[in-house]
Amino acid sequence: MKKQSNLQRLLGYAGRHRYLTFASWVLSAVSALLALVPYWYIWQIIREVLEVAPDFGRAQGLVHNGWMAVLFAVIAVLVYIAGLMCSHLGAFRIATNLRLAALEHIVRLPLGAAEAFGSGRLRKIVNESSAATETYLAHQLPDRAGAIATPCGLLVLLFVFDWKLGLLSLVPVLLGFLIMMTMTGSRMQQKMKEYQNALDDMSNEAVEYVRGIPVVKTFGQTIFSFRKFKGSIDRYQEWVIAYTKELRAPMMFYTAAINGVFVFLTAGAILLTSGGVSPEFLLNLLFYIIITPVISVTLTRIMFQSENAMIVDDALQRIDSVLNLKPLEETEHPRHPENGTVELSHIRFSYDGEKDVLKDISLTIPTGQKVAFVGPSGGGKTTLANVISRFFDPQSGSVRIGGVDVKDISKEELMNTVSFVFQNSRLIKASILENVRMGRPDASREEVLAALENAQCADILEKLPDGVDTVVGAKGVYLSGGEQQRIAIARVMLKDAPVLILDEATAFADPDNEVRVQAAFSRLSRGKTVIMIAHRLTTVADVDRIYVIKDGAIEESGTSRELLERGGLFSKMWNDYQTSVQWKVAKEGERA
User: Fold this and answer.
1) Structure confidence by residue, pLDDT tens digits, 195-231
2) How far apart are CA 477 and CA 497, in angstroms?
């Protein structure tokens, strides 16, 4: 199957607006040809002036020719504006549909895949790559049609009056094209890709840096703590400086060539008038001197159009990098889970297809049971929870909820079956009512207020100016980490899913908030299957079963008492944790 060109792909998103895009090209070409007509009237004015000199009172057509030049210039501008209106309507529709296609695909992706891609890079691709196509379609393509029409009209004008001067005028055009070829082509396209990669890296690292500012302030770190962000800036700086120096010489020669048409005309005029200057030759020379700047403008347009074509090609490749991500497979015959039992059978998972993060994990969590995943950092606890909630699909093995494979549960029902509370739950810039209602969009105001009450949020609503209708993030209204966590818990309570996953959900809470959060959790987890991921081992001491995860495998499992008596990894972690919580800062003069 023949591969579609970038333009064909873009027009595929235009729908009925593609005809506006075609119309913009025609109007732009007509405008370019109309813009050359005033030069004909200028030639008429110069000819008449030379004929009647020095008795200029005999000139009869100056005013008429002058007004006709103005009229055609105005008509050319109006036609060009009409072309731009058509091109912008088409470009806006295409960019909108392109963004919608990307966002609809992102929604269908596994949440883990989107997170791994990087929020900063994903935002830049969706927004800026589609914006690059908008500029290309709205301005560059109509200008290309004009840039093609202008040389055609110029060739007619250049050879109608004096073919010798016309040929001399084309010499710098040829030189300009030859120099331009050294600055374009496949090598330039690779450079453009490197440039966009450098921008993507900076954008992604900038987002991560901003998110990490609280850590910098808390622990008194400097900007050099974020070496990756600083490194991305340094790499971008080095690349841009080196690339600018590389193009400096050819750009100087190109500029000199396209603006040096007067040198060729002057030299040619001297040679061609060795036997004397005729009024007709002088007329044509003056005309060529006036019209040849259009050549340099046209060449510059063509050069930048080739650059923008490469930018669009790179933008579409980046959008494809998102569209090519494999979405979650949707079953055509969805089944409904019977209860909240979670079963994992021989789960193996790898992020890169090489190193296994989860290795042959099998376990069963009965309905209503509360379990905990603990273990050293990087052992695979969060990854295991992500596989259960189908943020990722495992390479082998199966995950079943309520006796049904999660792949056979519709995406909407799976999201209503499993709820999660992360350690850094985020709220959108909307009212608290709307934030909580995200858990169940059809919930009434009374149901939202009941969920907030059960989530221990009464004190939060009391201090806010508009209570539950207060917009978070507006007019200086901000909530602490623990308060945001309680609002997130209210959202999960309203959703009332049978399976609940808590991933370090009290990590950012202060002591007062932690007490309230734990009380909210106690109410939230009644009658539900609960999976907790925690480093504070005291928070999981009373769960029904603890799974100790190390290096992607279950090291041991049992109740906290059984594991302590066994004297294995959990026992060692418990002793280390108890030692750490007993540490204190000694006063001056005291012995530690």
Assistant:
1) 767 776 776 677 666 666 655 555 455 555 567 777 7
2) 30
